[in-house]
Specification:
449 residues, alpha/beta, Four Helix Bundle (Hemerythrin (Met), subunit A), Rossmann fold, 7-stranded mixed beta sheet, 6-stranded mixed beta sheet, 15 helices, 16% strand
């Protein structure tokens, strides 16, 4: 148990209707009683009305206080939360008063780190708390909620338990090497390794989508100069973010902005027009266009049919598919207001786009449709690069173990690779951790979490 009692704002600093302060630790109730005076008793999980006193004993504010008796609290320790008026002055004075009574200012993420240390959350769930706070879309929010509820942890726990049982049997064999006995059935172990590798690969395959759902889906607009790419970016953002000109090649560099559409957060990227570059700066911009294209999940290929040969659009689509075969592609025929007749191309996903808002609505609906059509289905989705790296390392260790088993190699090597796989899987949920890893993870949290 930590002998320090910590304090921090649990709400964002600045003006607001309310400020919430949180203290956690063995002295939480004593400090709260010293600073918060009420005619009501401190009953766990019941809010009481009272007066908060500053460090000089003067009334600072009137508000509410709630006591959470450990271990039935977020951190697993005694916790008191104060609801005061949302004045920066009141917040600063209240924190100063609680420190004067014996509390210490919390480090970033220290409340969540204590919840992890006290078994209230595993490490994957603790990281989900940070993702939940940072969520900017419904998709990101739901992904963080699933992880907080233990979707990743449960799958990994089942996998580790099965592998641990077999690793223990193989290591037991090493104590009876002279007797030449086998406690671990090799056929069953091989089947387990195949299953573990398949599950690890399936989870790892969700990372690309999971990271996009959390951080924003990369949506790249690409096409020849003067096709209307910057105009489209401005319309999707509902603001004039990019310069628009009739002069081809106005955009020399990529322009990136974030916007929400339906349940999803997008990272919208306008790129330099694709053509034979006339100078070094433009060549650099076009090379960056290709780089952004390779990272995209969705690609809008914008083409002005009044200013180019349809065969050029077909050729550009082939190049896009070659450079990023995993991306979903939508061909957009721009400047529909200027067409003299209907234009269609032999490409399954295409639509016309003019200045009419109904055209924009159709485009936005098509984007959401492409995202939902290409979603990975399942309860478990990996969104954290640390988790992905650990799964990748575990999969490599499991592959080595299978190779050794099939080659009839010493059980000692098989046991070593199994333990290596278990170590990497355990690092995701915190069953196996290093202090520097914990410090790195929780330092990214805000102070009040």
């Amino acid at each position: 148990m930590n002998d320090r009692t910590i304090v921090a704002l649990a709400t964002a600093s600045g003006l607001g209707a309310l400020t919430v302060l949180r203290i956690s630790g063995p002295e939480a109730l004593r400090i709260a009683t010293e600073r918060f005076k009420s005619n009501s008793g401190w009953t766990p999980r019941q809010s009481i009305l009272g007066k908060f006193l500053d460090s000089e004993g003067r009334m600072l504010d009137e508000g509410l206080a709630t006591f959470f008796k450990g271990p039935w609290s977020f951190t697993g320790e005694d916790v008191v939360e104060f609801g005061l008026h949302g004045s920066p002055f009141i917040a600063a004075q209240a924190v100063e008063a609680l420190i004067a009574s014996g509390a210490e200012l919390a480090a970033p993420g220290e409340f969540t780190q204590r919840a992890f240390a006290n078994g209230k959350l595993d490490l994957a769930q603790a990281e989900a708390v940070g993702d939940l706070i940072a969520a900017e879309s419904r998709a990101g929010h739901e992904l963080a909620l699933k992880q907080l509820k233990g979707s990743v942890s449960k799958r990994l726990s089942e996998l580790r338990r099965e592998l641990t049982d077999f690793a223990a049997l193989i290591e037991l064999e090493l104590d009876f090497v002279e007797e030449d006995v086998e406690f671990a059935n090799r056929t069953q172990l091989l089947a387990l390794l195949e299953s573990a590798m398949r599950q690890s690969a399936e989870m790892l395959a969700t990372f690309r989508q999971g990271q996009a759902m959390r951080d924003g889906i990369p949506l790249v607009i690409i096409g020849p100069p003067n096709a209307g790419k910057s105009t489209l970016l401005n319309r999707l953002l509902r603001e004039n973010r990019a310069l628009v000109s009739d002069v081809p090649g106005t955009t020399r560099d990529s322009v990136e902005e974030r916007f929400r559409l339906g349940d999803y957060l997008f990272r919208l990227i306008d790129t330099a027009g694709i053509r034979e570059a006339s100078d070094a700066v433009e060549r650099m911009g076009i090379e960056r266009s290709w780089m952004k294209l390779r990272e995209a999940h969705l690609v809008l290929v914008l083409f002005d049919p009044m200013d180019g040969d349809p065969r050029d659009a077909a050729e550009l689509l082939k190049v896009v598919e070659r450079e990023n075969p995993e991306a979903a592609v939508l061909l957009v025929l721009s400047k529909r207001d200027l067409w003299t007749g209907d234009i269609t191309l032999d490409f399954p996903a295409h639509l016309g786009l003019g200045l009419d808002d109904r055209d924009l609505d159709k485009l936005e609906s098509a984007l959401i449709g492409l995202i939902e059509a290409n979603q990975v289905q399942g309860e478990v989705m990996i969104a954290n690069i640390r988790h992905a790296n650990a799964l990748r390392a575990s999969l490599e260790a499991l592959t080595r173990a299978r190779t050794s088993l099939e080659a009839g190699t010493s059980g000692e090597l098989v046991a070593y690779d199994l333990r290596d796989a278990l170590r990497h899987l355990g690092s995701i949920t915190g069953e196996i951790t290093a202090d520097d890893l914990l410090s790195s993870i929780f330092s990214k949290f805000c102070i009040g979490k």
